[in-house]
Write the structure tokens for this entry.
Amino acid sequence: MLDPAIATLLEEDRRFPLEAYIFVFEALHYAQTELDMGSEGPSERTGRESEEEDSGLQPHVTGQELCQAIRQFALEQYGYMAKLVLGNWGLYTTGDFGEIVFNLIRIGRMRKTPHDRREDFDNVYDFDQAFREQFRIVVPEKE
């Protein structure tokens, strides 16, 4: 069953499908567990966290770190199709990741520190360079 807060969010903001939110959650987990990103520190409470979310301190990943983790996670999951998959979910810039994260913060499903801003996600990298350059096919010259 879909979390009611997420269901309401998807109705209010139709820019991104559920898959995009799930992907960002998974990328955050990947950043914290696989890439060992983040530092422990206080986060602001929205008043919407459940007790289980409130227990246990999670490492805090910055916007820039999360964007880099999303890039690595997308390439690992989807390879040369990463840009296409993200585009199917309405994700075309790193700023779109910020929109998702701050929507999740607004409904109490993610937290932020007093220093975190939505703009931290803007222009972290260009999608064409981040997802396509390393997959160029070079045809050898005929002798």
